[in-house]
Write a structure and sequence with these properties.
about 450 residues; alpha/beta; Spore Coat Polysaccharide Biosynthesis Protein SpsA, Chain A; UDP N-Acetylglucosamine Acyltransferase, domain 1; 3 domains; 16-stranded parallel β-sheet; 9-stranded parallel β-sheet; 10 helices; binds uridine-diphosphate-N-acetylglucosamine; binds calcium ion
Length: about 450
């Protein structure tokens, strides 16, 4: 079988982004652009992926890890110069090389596969992935001869007024015969408007040598969007968001208003779950079957079981079981584990706490650094007093216990199984199992006091 290599161009600073963050690390639906590109190539089963890094090299490598090998382009002298840096790893090897820009996150692996197949069918030395653009401004234009064969690519800045009218553009994705590529790269000059070594010049070089140069035109321009600035970044986000929503809907998830919903590319959602408007699901999140999420919820890096509802609430880096209800207006902060059939009601904040099956915190509470057993009822307004100004302390609440309204549990403290805490208590000592703890001033009624006051007048 033909060996397949891939070179990903990711060394540019991305000046037009006007950003501290290197261009290819800007996220689209939560995943850096270059990672989308490398993942798509991995799907193809390439034998070797080489990413050309320069600006932000360490950060790019940190992000991609062992998904790719790396070569350094010290100075960004152009896309041909960038590919040349991969010579140490692949020059002279028989096989085909896919070159993809790190700033084109929307090109699907299916399209890359079709490009490779077309390249092989045409027995070409180079095949360009092209698209028809309504507004081709900024892209290299595909120039064809009288027989409709590709003769060269001209960059926007080097194009004549007539060439600028051409709507067929270079997507920046190519397939090359690997040996021919590295031979042709040696002949590329930087005699052009930008003084750069252009990879597209390889096309004209090969064509003039009488080699077969082909083009594979995709009919979906939206795939080929190159992200050079924040306007294009938002456009890429919109397109990818639409794709992700469509994927979930085709898998059996109802999304009431896809335009108002943001789901990361790494989220999994089960069947018959309904996503209401204004929902954001970020990071690596997993939501089970038959859930109802939203309206207006923000979930990040969290796992949710089946038949659970999360209404107008924020859930971060936490795990929620099945048949559980969260919200409206609850805040589940990192490292929390809510079990099955748990209820977290309005204006409740939970931080780094575990709640066992069937436990309820229905209204206006703060639960921090707390382990709550099963079937516990936490009354309205209960506070776990976890912070002494220096350190955080743990509260433990045993199974089947009942904490009355407006209690303060001063940690470290432990409430035994099956015990009761009277409403309004400030608990500073451990409560044994099956006990009633009352820690509040005893009420005194002054009989007839009102008349006494009146007499004084
Ligand atoms: C490039 C193509 C253009 C095509 C467009 C598609 C060239 C000269 N032009 O233009 O024909 O229509 O992509 O999106 O290739 N990079 C390096 N090292 C460099 C220069 C660039 O690694 O020295 C990387 C960048 O990080 C980027 C990619 O190559 O990921 C493309 O570079 P960019 O400057 O965005 O090229 P375009 O002007 O978009
Ligand atoms: Ca670009």
């Amino acid at each position: 079988m033909t060996r397949t290599y891939a070179v990903v161009l990711a060394a540019g600073q991305g000046t037009r982004m006007k950003s501290k963050l290197y261009k290819v690390l800007h996220p689209v639906c939560g995943t850096p652009m270059v990672e989308h590109v490398v993942r798509n190539i991995s799907e193809l089963g390439a034998d070797k992926i080489v990413t050309v890094v320069g600006h932000g090299a360490e950060k790019v490598q940190e992000q991609l890890g062992s998904e790719s090998e790396y070569v350094m382009q010290e100075e960004q002298l152009g896309t041909a110069h960038a590919v040349q840096q991969a010579a140490s790893l692949i020059e002279g090897l028989p096989g085909i090389t896919l070159v993809v820009c790190g700033d084109t996150p929307l090109i699907r692996h299916e399209t890359m596969q079709q490009l490779i197949e077309h390249h092989q069918d045409e027995k070409a030395k180079a095949t360009i992935l092209t698209a028809m653009a309504e507004n081709p401004s900024g892209y290299g234009r595909i120039i064809r001869d009288a027989e409709d064969n590709v003769s060269k690519i001209v960059e926007q800045k080097d194009a004549s007024p007539k060439e600028r009218l051409v709507k067929e553009i270079n997507t920046g994705t190519y397939c090359f015969d690997n040996e021919a590529l590295f031979k042709a790269l040696k002949q590329v000059s930087n005699d052009n408007a930008q003084g750069e070594y252009y990879l597209p010049d390889v096309i004209e070089i090969l064509q003039k040598q009488g080699e077969t140069v082909a083009a594979y035109a995709t009919d979906d321009f939206s795939e080929t969007l190159g992200v050079n600035d924040r306007v294009a970044l938002a456009e890429a986000e919109r397109i990818m968001r639409g794709r992700i929503a469509e994927k979930h809907m085709r898998n059996g998830v109802s999304i009431v208003d896809p335009a108002s919903v943001y789901i990361s590319s790494e989220t999994e959602i089960g069947r018959d779950t309904v996503i209401q408007p204004n929902v954001i699901i970020e990071g690596t999140s997993k939501i089970g079957d038959d859930c109802e999420i939203g309206p207006s919820s923000h979930i990040k890096n969290s796992q949710i079981g089946d038949r659970t509802t999360v209404h107008s609430s924020v859930v971060t880096s936490s795990t929620i079981g099945s048949d559980t209800a969260v919200g409206p207006y609850a805040h589940i902060r990192p490292d929390s584990q809510l079990g099955d059939s748990v209820k977290i009601g309005n204006f409740v904040e939970v931080k780094k706490s575990a709640l066992g099956q069937g436990s309820k915190v229905s209204h206006l509470s703060y639960i921090g650094d707390t382990e709550i057993g099963t079937n516990v009822n936490i009354g309205c307004g209960t506070i776990t007093v976890n912070y002494d100004g220096k350190e955080k302390h743990v509260t433990q609440i045993g199974d089947d216990s009942f904490i009355g309204c407006n209690s303060n549990l001063i940690a470290p403290v432990s409430i035994g199984k099956g015990s009761y805490v009277a409403a309004g208590s400030t608990i500073s000592k451990d409560v044994p199992e099956d006990a009633l703890a009352i820690a509040r001033a005893r009420q005194e009624n002054k009989e007839g006091y009102v008349q006494k006051l009146n007499l004084k007048k």
